[in-house]
Amino acid sequence: MAKVKSTYACTACGYESPRWVGRCPGCGAWNTLEESLQAVPEKAAGKIAANQRPGTGAKPMSLKDIPEDTSVRTGTGISELDRVLGGGIVEGGLILIGGDPGIGKSTLLLQVCDHLAKSGKRTLYISGEESARQIKLRAARLGIESDLYVLAENALDAIEEKIRELQPDTAVIDSIQTMYRPEMASAPGSVSQIREGTSLIMRLCKETGTSVFLVGHVTKDGAIAGPRMLEHMVDVVLYFEGDRQQDYRLLRAVKNRFGSVNELGVFRMTGQGMQVVENPSEELLSLRAKGASGSTVFCGMEGSRPLLCDVQALTSPTFYGTPRRAVNGADSGRVAMLLAVLEKRANQRTYNQDVYINVAGGLELSEPAADLALCVAVASSLKDKPVGPEIAVMGEVGLAGEVRTIPQCERRIAECARLGFTTIVVPRSNARRISLPENVKVVGVDTVAQAMSVIF
């Protein structure tokens, strides 16, 4: 006769405790332990040992004896997704995609299955949230007519059996939070179910060579729901970013065992599915207000891609004892530091001004090279003088007001020149050792104050 045992597992690190505690003993996080119920049969030790799966039985091999395979990557047919994945899907890879509900995860993966099926690959789309009829309706809306396989199933044991039977090249599981193992008493979506289910799928990927996409739900904080160790188990973790009320979607890699984690894919959500944005710099600057103060063009690097964006600032006299600082798309702590540098080193008074910062298009600026553009945008709003439409600004700012060297400056300048910017303000140390495109003037500056005098 089985009896029910209550355990508590940490959603951040997976630590299990027989009782609830406020702070996880494993990682130190507060209020992360969640209760799960498990059926423990009599003589559990003997039965659990008997039910454990054997290993693969593989023998140790010398590194030089392992055969090399240069054709392990498969293109998805979607250039932006291939860019983020590092060139395509790796055979036997386990890829986790997270994002807000309705942002387009299932739509993009159904399009991936369509492209792969048209190229002759056997693909399987497994849904635990929709019926096969619902998937067919969405495929008809997207214009998908390829011969891909669809399975509506929640039990992982049945899914494993079907995958071994069909032997697909690529499979999609939508979503991991709806899957469960029947021998476990806890509900689907619990920490133990997600952990054990992902472990089973990972072992299946390595044994069969099937590449699997996992769709993961996110919490209200934007993190993938379930134990944090879920992200450690998979090979690639991708996040969809963007506002559902806007067309643009950003696909970013936060972990990639097979490539760079700095790449960014840009998509536009349409009635026909996800469409690739071929020239995101031009798209992001197309709606820029001409002749308005507080707007500066900056060229950032997202992996190997230079990307131009509109950095906006608005200042207004405050009516409160403490001025307000609101930042969207940049680090608020770094913005506070830059405002202090403007006060001390460039004689720009912001102590009695509310300051609002925004990066148009939903981008997140994390590199220090955006410092000078932020400072120029704030100064432009304070002076109520627009920055020239032909000027682009980039550079890192130190506490002494100096403008420091930035990486990959030549690629940034080339992208600015391609879009018609003729005057580019950069650190002087970068300006000394670059080859300039035709009809482009590069101005090197040493300090923030010098940059202000050049631009205004």
Short description:
With 456 residues, the protein is α/β, with parallel strands linked by helices. The protein is built from 13 helices and 23 strands.
Regions with little confidence, pLDDT below 50 for 5+ residues? 43-51
Terminal CA distance? 82 Å
* The number of domains: 3
- What integer value in Å does the Rg equal? 26 Å
Question: What would you call the structural class?
Answer: alpha/beta
Helix fraction by DSSP (H/I, runs of at least 4): 25-40%
CATH superfamily of the largest domain: P-loop containing nucleotide triphosphate hydrolases
Query: What is the total tally of β strands?
Result: 23
Strand content: 25-35%
The CATH class label of the largest domain is Alpha Beta
What would the principal axes of the Cα set say about the shape?
globular
Strand order of the largest sheet: 8-7-9-10-6-11-12-13-14
Question: Major sheet: size, sense and barrel closure?
Answer: 9 strands, mixed
CATH architecture of the largest domain: 3-Layer(aba) Sandwich
Q: Would you tell me which CATH topology of the largest domain applies?
A: Rossmann fold
